[in-house]
């Protein structure tokens, strides 16, 4: 009995096999973790500096408007580029560009009168560099680990990003409040420099011989491929439906202050989802035993919506924090299995372009969801906006999975794309 219990608990532990077995995975993981931690420090410092210089909430929000076009255009182009060039060189080149941009941000803080226009320019340029870089980073993951280790590699990558999501804003807040934005941007700069130096140590992963040169035609080919693969299309649509209909973050200030009467605990609402996601990552060892991964994505996204909806009914803030944490855990499970499907089934020569499309999906869904939540809250109430979003999310995911039935039936053991990639990796 005790041995059986120990065996079951062992299956929950996060699987460290990719970390032990792959030098380049360790480089990607450490570099990405440091890069993300520094980026989250800057994520706090940038809006703080903008607000201090302008006194305008609109000026802070306008940074989002400035970055949307670069995200769309260069996210797609960066994906096409990642399928043609050596990905290590693209990571290093964009990293150097980000070092220059970050150094400009630090220099601007040292001026007697920091320039607001320069902050927007740097924000737009950084969005360009990030959009060019991220598809290459994500497309490399399946090349540096074994095919069967991909679920564990995705879980480890997600875990480190969640640590950064928790620690980065906390560190940024302390730096901004105690020593100023110059130090916060300097920490971000140091993180980018360190990550770029690590990327330079990656092995050479050349594109396949039949890789397509970056062009509008190549980008269109990636979009056509995604739409023809109903299982891939479902991963994008299910996530976008979930995020668009049940993204509650923009309502947290009003929810904590006006509804729950606990403004001092607002920070815990922001942290709850990340804590839940981290708990899911730390107990993700079971994921490698799941083969119906599409089904897992559907159920997890429905769980996200249901948990958000119940949190909207909370009689007190601790109830809300608990269910927002549960929502974060469900979202992490959805992210895990969507990533596994992408990394185990997409051909290497298409992976960059599909990573670019994926980046757009998980960026635009939350942006639209925040606008939807704010509009519904203004027209009705904050509770109505949160609860209705959760209910609509569950209904929308059911409708989407019913429309794309292939996704519910997806089985990694028999899917033709997964089988082909598994055989290619075994032969290579």
Automatic annotation (TrEMBL):
Classification via InterPro entries: MFS_dom, MFS_trans_sf, TM_effector
Location within or outside the cell: Cell inner membrane
UniProt-listed Pfam families: MFS_3 (PF05977)
Xref: SUPFAM superfamilies: MFS general substrate transporter (SSF103473)
Gene source species: Kribbella karoonensis
Keywords for the protein's UniProt record, in alphabetical order: Cell membrane, Membrane, Transmembrane, Transmembrane helix, Transport
Membrane-spanning intervals of the chain: 27-46, 58-78, 90-110, 181-200, 236-256, 268-287, 317-341
Domain annotation Major facilitator superfamily (MFS) profile: ranges: 223-428
Mode of membrane association: Multi-pass membrane protein
Protein name: MFS transporter
């Amino acid at each position: 009995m005790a041995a059986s219990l120990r065996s079951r608990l062992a299956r929950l532990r996060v699987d460290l096999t990719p970390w032990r077995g792959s030098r380049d995975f360790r480089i990607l993981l450490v570099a990405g973790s440091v890069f993300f931690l520094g980026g989250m420090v800057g994520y706090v410092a940038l809006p703080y500096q903008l607000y201090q210089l302008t006194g305008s909430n609109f000026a802070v929000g306008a940074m989002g408007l400035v970055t949307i076009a670069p995200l769309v255009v260069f996210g797609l182009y960066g994906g096409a580029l990642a399928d043609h060039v050596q990905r290590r060189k693209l990571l290093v080149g964009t990293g150097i560009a980000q070092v220059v941009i970050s150094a400009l941000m630090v220099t601007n803080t040292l001026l007697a009168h920091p320039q607001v226009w320069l902050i927007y320019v740097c924000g737009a340029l950084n969005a360009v560099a990030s959009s060019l870089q991220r598809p290459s980073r994500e497309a490399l993951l399946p090349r540096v680990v074994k095919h069967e280790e991909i679920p564990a590699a995705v879980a480890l990558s997600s875990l480190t990003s969640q640590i950064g999501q928790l620690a980065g804003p906390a560190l940024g807040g302390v730096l901004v409040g105690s020593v100023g934005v110059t130090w916060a941007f300097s920490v971000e700069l140091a993180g980018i420099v360190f990550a770029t130096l690590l990327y330079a140590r990656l092995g050479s992963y050349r594109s396949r011989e039949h890789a397509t040169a970056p062009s509008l035609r190549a980008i269109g080919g990636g979009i056509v491929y995604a739409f023809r693969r109903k299982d891939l299309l479902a991963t994008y649509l299910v996530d976008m439906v979930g995020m668009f209909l049940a993204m509650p973050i923009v309502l947290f200030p009003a929810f904590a202050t006006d509804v729950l009467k606990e403004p001092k605990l607002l920070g815990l609402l922001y942290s709850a989802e990340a804590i839940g996601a981290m708990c899911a990552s730390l107990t993700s060892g079971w994921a490698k035993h799941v083969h119906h991964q599409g089904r897992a994505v559907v159920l997890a996204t429905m769980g996200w919506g249901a948990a958000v909806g119940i949190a909207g009914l909370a009689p007190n803030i601790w109830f809300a924090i608990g269910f927002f944490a549960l929502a974060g855990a469900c979202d992490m499970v959805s992210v895990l299995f969507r990533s596994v499907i992408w990394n185990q089934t997409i051909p290497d020569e298409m992976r960059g372009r599909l990573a670019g499309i994926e980046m757009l999906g998980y960026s635009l869904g939350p942006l639209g969801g925040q606008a939807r939540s704010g509009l519904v809250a203004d027209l009705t109430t904050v509770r109505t906006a949160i609860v209705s979003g959760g209910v609509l999310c569950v209904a929308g995911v059911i409708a989407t999975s019913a429309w794309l039935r292939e996704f519910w039936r997806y089985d990694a053991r028999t899917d033709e794309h997964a089988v082909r990639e598994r055989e290619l990796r075994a032969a290579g």
